[in-house]
Specification:
Blueprint (H helix, E strand, L loop, with lengths): L5 E6 L8 H12 L4 E7 L14 H4 L5 E5 L1 E5 L2 E4 L4 H12 L7 E6 L4 H12 L3 E6 L10 H21 L2 E4 L2 H11 L5 E2 L17 E6 L8 H9 L7 E4 L5 H10 L6 E5 L3 H10 L1 E6 L8 H8 L3 E5 L13 E4 L4 H18 L4 H7 L2 H11 L1
Parallel strand pairs: 1-2, 1-6, 2-3, 6-7, 7-8, 8-9, 10-11, 10-13, 11-12, 13-14, 14-15
Antiparallel strand pairs: 4-5
Helix pairs in contact: 4-5, 7-11
């Protein structure tokens, strides 16, 4: 760590793991030019985690920055826990600690309160007297597959995670909804909103003339793709419904499409690389639907609007903050009939409202503006 100052991001997951949080840290990692930039990440989804100079041009372009990976495991799905009982973990901890030459010039960043890593690296920051900035991505308590699990997550929020939000030197939230949630539920003062960016290629002036309904993202219960299938089955529309991604609900959704007699019009493309998804969005005329009941940071909605498509999305958490233009059509969660009406409105008015949010959203979520704001927070 040779530059005058440096930032270290602490992560529960690291790419190729694919969540919106990963896009945030990866963007900071690749685009940050003010000081040296480092990553300390769990080993899940990594090919190797013994030594750790990164050489992937895809991840860091032409910059040779450090990435230290520590051993961890998932105690339950999507909840990694560092293996603090192993020698390798403490070797990595000491390696990191030895690299902090001047704590006043070291800025540590944790992402979202839901992971044990945020708590652990908060302790590390306090022990080493480093400035600790926590970026909160959540806007509500976690809702899991059972009331019992949801209650356990709530108790965690009110104990360990509350400590994270109270002890960090500064808390940044990725939306006003997230900021209001943190201030109200955790009594944290001085929270600032920091809008992240989206790295989107230039969009063609014209899309194809044939429209489709489209869903993109993980096929899990909380995304409520089953609501989309039911609403679509009641439409008197000739448009196909395309579903991109994979997940635990895949087989159930295939069966549901058959039961609703729409399987011939529903096209499952499964998981596609990010570049192919963006290419599809840029070239096709899409009515993209987000029926999710729970969204921390609906980055997909931003992508869809920036590729000049029309979006129908449930009005949850901070989705409404993205745009006030007509090409973002908000619908209520839990109501298939209203979702059906919104889908019909999108199809009928597509040509008149397409691309309305493009300029404002692209400007608001630009790289330059976002990174300048983060630098100013430091």
């Amino acid at each position: 760590m040779k530059k005058e100052k440096h930032i270290i991001q602490f992560l529960a997951y690291s790419k190729p793991h694919i969540w919106g949080v990963e896009d945030v840290w990866d963007g900071i990692f690749r685009k940050w030019t003010h000081w040296e930039s480092f990553i300390f990440s769990g080993c899940l989804w990594q090919d190797s985690y013994v030594d750790n100079k990164i050489g992937s041009e895809e991840n860091i372009e032409d910059r040779q920055e450090n990435k230290v990976v520590f051993p961890d495991f998932e105690i339950v799905d999507n909840f990694p826990v560092p293996k603090i009982w192993t020698k390798l973990f403490w070797k990595k901890w000491k390696e990191l600690q030895n690299n902090i030459e001047d704590e006043e010039k070291t800025y540590l960043i944790t992402h979202t309160r839901f992971f044990l890593s945020s708590f652990l690296w908060g302790i590390f920051a306090k022990r080493n007297n480093c400035t600790w900035i926590h970026i909160e991505h959540g806007s509500d308590y976690v809702k899991l597959s059972s009331p019992f699990k949801t209650k356990i997550a709530y108790l965690y929020d009110k104990t360990l995670w509350k400590w994270v939000l109270k002890k960090a030197d500064k808390v940044l939230c990725i939306s006003s909804a997230s900021s209001n949630f943190v201030e109200k539920e955790f009594w944290v003062q001085g929270v600032k909103v920091w809008l992240r960016w989206k790295d989107i290629p230039e969009t063609p002036e014209k899309h194809t003339s044939e429209k489709v309904f489209l869903f993109i993202w993980r096929l899990v219960h909380l995304k409520w793709v089953q609501d989309l299938l039911r609403a679509y089955s009641e439409l008197s529309s000739e448009l196909n419904l395309v579903i991109i991604w994979d997940g635990e609900e895949k087989e159930k959704l295939i069966t549901l499409a058959k039961d609703l007699w729409i399987s011939s019009k529903v096209k499952f493309l499964w998981h596609l690389p990010k570049s192919e998804v963006l290419k599809y969005l840029s070239e096709e005329s899409c009515i993209v639907v987000n029926p999710s009941y729970q969204e921390w940071m609906p980055t997909t909605v931003i992508e869809w609007l920036m590729t000049k498509n029309v979006v129908v999305a449930t009005d949850v958490w901070w989705t409404s903050e993205i745009s006030n233009k007509e090409d973002l059509i908000l619908t209520k969660a839990w109501d298939v009939n209203i979702l059906k009406e919104k889908l019909q409105i999108a199809e009928t008015n597509y040509e008149n409202i397409q691309g309305g949010s493009y300029n404002s959203v692209r400007k608001r979520f630009s790289w330059d503006k976002s990174l300048e704001a983060l630098y100013n927070h430091f």
